[in-house]
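Troubleshooting log. The previous run stalled partway through. Resubmitting the same six chains, unchanged.
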Amino acid sequence: MADTWLTTLITDTPQAGFELAITLSRRGVKYTQPDAAVRDRLRTEYAENADSLTAASQVIAINFQTIAAANNYWRK
Amino acid sequence: MADTWLTTLITDTPQAGFELAITLSRRGVKYTQPDAAVRDRLRTEYAENADSLTAASQVIAINFQTIAAANNYWRK
Amino acid sequence: MADTWLTTLITDTPQAGFELAITLSRRGVKYTQPDAAVRDRLRTEYAENADSLTAASQVIAINFQTIAAANNYWRK
Amino acid sequence: MADTWLTTLITDTPQAGFELAITLSRRGVKYTQPDAAVRDRLRTEYAENADSLTAASQVIAINFQTIAAANNYWRK
Amino acid sequence: MADTWLTTLITDTPQAGFELAITLSRRGVKYTQPDAAVRDRLRTEYAENADSLTAASQVIAINFQTIAAANNYWRK
Amino acid sequence: MADTWLTTLITDTPQAGFELAITLSRRGVKYTQPDAAVRDRLRTEYAENADSLTAASQVIAINFQTIAAANNYWRK
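Second attempt completed without errors. Output:
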């Protein structure tokens, strides 16, 4: 992938960090399946499956651990 | 999602931290499946499945790791 | 849930910490499936399934990581 | 469980730590399924299943993370 | 494997770190299945399966945790 | 197991650390299934299954986290 999509793990707020965790999770999929049409088709399937949604939430949780640590947990 | 739902990882007690971990876990699902009606239907299914419940508990455990670290484990 | 069930992550011994990890794992299930009768029925099923037991042990292991860190690993 | 089985996470060697990680993993199962006869029967099944063995190895790996950190990775 | 493929975990940017995490994830597969033709065949299958893609993204997330820590999260 | 197979987590290079992570992952299986003939048979099966290979790669990733931390990420 030639595009630049990740230049920092630092975010202003925990919520922005959580949303970055979602981006990382989706990028992990995109590197394996680069075809957007295939990903869109698959998403409509797994978005109706409880276990698939839990699994997706788990990947986000793992990436959020990384981002939260990078931001020192946004402690004041 | 335009709403603000996560402004801090700091909580007064470990229990409040655990409940925040649940919120994060559900938000991870919500970002993938924004339709509340679909999520409600799926929940009635997986809440009757032991493995689905274990998987949900695991995502909570992972998010709780993050929140507990953010709070220095609520050490006195 | 209105009851108070988690006021500290600190325990006297590693074994007490491990048992607290079990409590956290079960609470993660209870928040998703509050009906005790349903949980009891499901438990008799998954307690006879090797993969379900391994999955349960994994959630305990993740929660034990958190509790062990909170207790500085009970180092003397 | 009334017996005392875990008084310290400290071990002399990494290998002893790895074996303690196995003990923790099995205890996680034992708390959920206390009947030894059932566990023995289930073990003969999952010991012949590649995915079950990988899952068991994963729980050990997670517990080993905890024990290795407790021992400061047995650095000299 | 006789070739040298991993001499450092340090990367210039988070994105390069994420791509290294992908490399580690694929190497983990390659050590178990060294035959490139088999891996290529399997990839075409799992790249069409949503749960397989989520699982692949999860391994990347775990490896990215390691690499991000190694790089002190690329903090300025 | 009477043999000594793990005396240190320290390795000269990240790649040697990754290979040690593979050793740990396989040992986790070996403790549960000590019969080499059974393990060999199972390996030929799961080495042809994409999800099994991803799961194996995940266990390696978890063990690599431990070993990388032990080696301070091989920072110069």
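Takeaways: Residues 14-74 of chain A form one domain. Helices of chain A lie at 14-32, 36-46, 50-70.
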